[in-house]
Design a protein that fits this description.
It comes from Malaciobacter canalis. The protein is an alpha+beta fold. The protein folds into two domains: 140 residues, Enolase-like, domain 1; 85 residues, no CATH class. 28% of the residues lie in helices and 31% in strands. The chain contains six helices and nine strands; from the N terminus they run H-E-E-H-E-E-E-H-H-H-E-E-H-E-E. It has a four-stranded antiparallel beta sheet with strand order 6-7-9-8, with no helix packed on it. The protein has a three-stranded antiparallel beta sheet with strand order 3-4-5. The protein has a two-stranded antiparallel ribbon with strand order 1-2. A hairpin with a 5-residue loop joins strand 4 and strand 5.
């Protein structure tokens, strides 16, 4: 079905530097980002030799949260088609995804929720092609989480944080009210404290910018991060 070069790439062990982690409740989740799996598909199958269609996009729910932000949830069905070098269809895959959008305006929450659902369905469809698309992350016997944590920790250490007048780095204990950012946690985002700042981390983070800005975070172009200075005197 696939040529030897494609099979070689597909059978290669997943590089731990591609794996991201986030917390959901008391569970640590490992995942690949949406742009990452698209770039991998272009590398493995070739530009123009694969495509996807949105078979279904359906709104699931809509409500206002405690911060008076709109919360709109979607589910999507995405179909993947892969072709050979003569553009003859080799195989197709299909899977479902879920997404939620949280924003001050109804239009922005619809946009974020729909995009997140499509990205989730796309990633789930592609993972059926093996380890390079994150299928191995579902294998509980593997140690992907620890590898990803070490990689993310090193990346965070190397990144330059936004300038701060407070040079005293706080310890790793949380010194902020998690409930204040529940809307972001509902979007599968997480808040971490670094060098006197709160930093937003998670998957497809820029597509959720309206929800993040609604919580008072600002975008730093140099570090490519959403940040917010930790208030002084917060216990």
């Amino acid at each position: 079905m696939f040529n030897n070069k494609q099979l070689e790439v597909l059978n290669t062990e997943l590089n731990s530097s591609r794996i991201k982690t986030r917390e959901k409740g008391n569970i640590n989740l490992s995942y690949l980002e949406g742009f990452d799996v698209i770039e991998t598909a272009n590398k493995v199958f070739g530009f123009g030799n694969w495509s996807y269609t949105i078979s279904k996009l359906e709104q699931v729910s809509q409500e206002l949260n405690q911060n008076q932000n709109y919360v709109v949830c979607y589910k999507a069905l995405v179909n993947i088609l892969v072709y050979d070098e003569n553009h003859i269809k080799l195989v197709n895959r299909e899977d479902v995804g879920f997404g939620s959008g949280i924003a001050k305006t109804l239009a922005d929450s619809h946009e974020s929720g729909a995009k997140e659902a499509i990205t989730d369905a796309l990633k789930r469809s592609l993972r059926s092609f093996g380890n390079q698309f994150g299928n191995s992350l579902y294998d509980k016997s593997r140690n992907h989480q620890n590898q990803a944590k070490q990689q993310n920790k090193q990346s965070s250490h190397n990144q330059q944080m936004p300038p701060s007048n407070n040079q005293n780095q706080r310890n790793s204990t949380q010194a902020f009210n998690q409930y204040e950012y529940q809307s972001l946690y509902n979007l599968a985002l997480n808040i971490v404290e670094q060098n006197g700042f709160l930093i937003v981390v998670g998957d497809d983070i820029f597509s959720k910018k309206d929800s993040i800005k609604a919580c008072g975070f600002r975008w730093d172009g140099k570090t490519k991060q959403w940040y917010k200075q930790l208030e002084q005197g917060v216990a």
